Amino acid sequence: MVLEILFAQSLPFIFAGLILLFLSIRIINQWETGVRFRLGRYKDTLVPGLRFIVPIIDGIRRVDMRLLTIDIPRQQVITKDNVPVIINGVVYFKVMDAATAIIKVQDYIYAVSQYAQTALRDVAGGMTLDQVLGERENIGKDIEKIVEEASKNWGIEITDIKLQDIDMPEDLKRLMSRQASSEREKRATIIKAEGDRIAADNLAKAAATMMKSPGAMQLRTLQTIDGLGPTASNTVVIAVPVDILDLIRNINAAVKKK
C-alpha cells in the first residue's frame, strides 16, 4: 500500500523527467552544425549526431555546411562606353565557421547576395561592352575577389562566381549582327583574294615550265581531254595550235624538196 502511494506521488515527477529528457534531445544531421547559446551567450558548436541540451536555458541555431548556391538577380549596368546591359549570375559559397557566420552577420546569405550585386555593378561598370562580352570568366574572378575580401571575417568561403546572361537592347543586337556579318564578308573576300593570288602564282610557274618544253602544252591538252572520260554526252572540239600547223607545213616543205 505504501509503495503504491509513493509510486502515485512520484508519477508526475517521472512524467516531468521524461518530458525534460525529450526536450533536451537534439539530432544534428551530417550536413549541419549546431551553434548552442546558453542564456543568450555563445556556448559551443555541436557536431552531427545525437546531442543533449538544457531545455529552456539552451538554444540551438542550425547551420547548413554544404555548398550553397544563390542567384545574383538581373542587374542593369552602364558600361564604360555608356551601353546599358542587364547581367545576372550565380554565387557558390559555403560556411566554414558556423559560430562566426551566425554571430557576426544577421543573415549571411542575404549579405553575400547584396555584396555580389554591388561588386557586379562596380566591375562591369568599369569595362567596355566588348570587354564585358569577351571576359566573363575574368569578371567572375574579379567579383569573387571583392566578395571574398569582404566576407573573409564572416566565416564564409566564396567558392566561385559565374555570370549567366548578358542582355542588351535589341537595336544594339542588330547593329552587332550586321557588324559581325560585315567582318565575315571581309574575311571571305580577303581569303578569296589570297587564293586567287596563289593560283596566279602557280599558273605563272606552270606557264614558265611549259615554255621550256615545246611539247608540254600538247601533253597537257591530251591529259585534259583524257580527264573528260568516255561519257557519250561530252562533245570535244579540238583546236589545233598554230605551232603544230607550222610544224606540219615545214615537214611537207622538206618532203617536197627531196
Written description of the protein model:
The chain has 258 residues and is an alpha+beta fold. Helices cover 55% and strands 24% of the residues. The chain is built from eight helices and eight strands, in the order αβββββββααααβααα. The chain has helices at 2-24, 98-104, 108-125, 129-134, 136-151, 170-212, 216-227, 242-257, and strands spanning 25-28, 32-38, 41-46, 49-52, 58-64, 68-78, 84-95, 156-167. The protein has a three-stranded antiparallel beta sheet, with helices on one face. Strands 6-7-8 form a three-stranded antiparallel beta sheet. A two-stranded antiparallel sheet has the order 1-4. A hairpin with a 5-residue loop joins strand 6 (68-78) and strand 7 (84-95). The longest helix is centred in the C-terminal third of the chain and has 43 residues, at 170-212.
List keywords for this structure.
3-stranded antiparallel β-sheet; 8 helices; 258 residues; Tetrahydropterin Synthase, Chain A; alpha+beta; 8 strands
